[in-house]
Design brief:
The complex is a heterodimer.
Chain A (H helix, E strand, L loop, with lengths): L3 E3 L4 E4 L4 E7 L6 E7 L5 E7 L4 E3 L2 E6 L4 E6 L8 E8 L5 E3 L3 E6 L1
Parallel strand pairs in A: 2-11
Antiparallel strand pairs in A: 1-3, 3-8, 4-5, 4-9, 6-7, 7-8, 9-10, 9-11
Chain B lengths: L4 E3 L2 E4 L5 E6 L6 E8 L3 E9 L2 E4 L8 E7 L2 E6 L8 E8 L1 E2 L2 E2 L3 E2 L3 E5 L1
Parallel strand pairs in B: 2-13
Antiparallel strand pairs in B: 1-3, 3-8, 4-5, 4-9, 5-6, 7-8, 9-12, 9-13, 10-11
The chains are: A mainly beta, B mainly beta.
Amino acid sequence: RKEVEQDPGPFNVPEGATVAFNCTYSNSASQSFFWYRQDCRKEPKLLMSVYSSGNEDGRFTAQLNRASQYISLLIRDSKLSDSATYLCVVTLNDYKLSFGAGTTVTVRA
Amino acid sequence: DAGVIQSPRHEVTEMGQEVTLRCKPISGHNSLFWYRQTMMRGLELLIYFNNNVPIDDSGMPEDRFSAKMPNASFSTLKIQPSEPRDSAVYFCASSLELTGFSYEQYFGPGTRLTVT
C-alpha cells in the first residue's frame, strides 16, 4: 500500500468555482502534513502546512482528520492560475517527506 | 535571493555513459536532498545530507548511483553507468534544520535526464 494516496483527477472546474479533494495516508505515526503545488514541468513548492485544527490561507482551506487518516484541500473562487498539480505530503520524521502522486486541477475560463 | 541552483537543466546521454548532476543549495541551509520524479513512481527521496554528511541514503536505487557533498555549497549526484530506466527529473532541495525542527524544503528547477 502506498504511504500517501491521492485521486489523480483531473478536476476540471470553471473560474469562480469551488474545488475540493482529499488524500489518505497509511502510517498513523505521521507527524506533519503539507500541500505542495507543482506547475507543469516545474519544481514543487510549498502551498501550505496542514494543522489539526484546520487552517486557511486566503482562498485555500486545509483540513486534517487524524482518526480517519486523511487530509483535504479546498480552493474557493478558483482562478486560472490555480491550475496545477497538488501534492499531498506527509512526514514521519524531521526530514523525510512522503509525496502523493498528485491531484491535477484545471481551471477553465 | 538565489534559490537552489541545479545544472544542467537538461541532459541527454547514451546508455552506459556517466552522468553527473550538480546542485548548489540556498546559502545558510544545512540540509540537502536529492529526489527523483517519474510518472510511474512520483517523487522519491534518494539521499539526504545534513551538515554535508549523508544521513539517509536508503532511497538510492543501486550501486550505480552515488552522491557527494564536499562542502556546504555544492553537491553532486552521479550515475555510472546510466541506463534508460534512469530517465527522470532529478530535483535537489535544501532546507534549514535545527534540533527537532525542520523548515520548508525549497526545490531547485530540476534536471531532466534522458538516457537513450
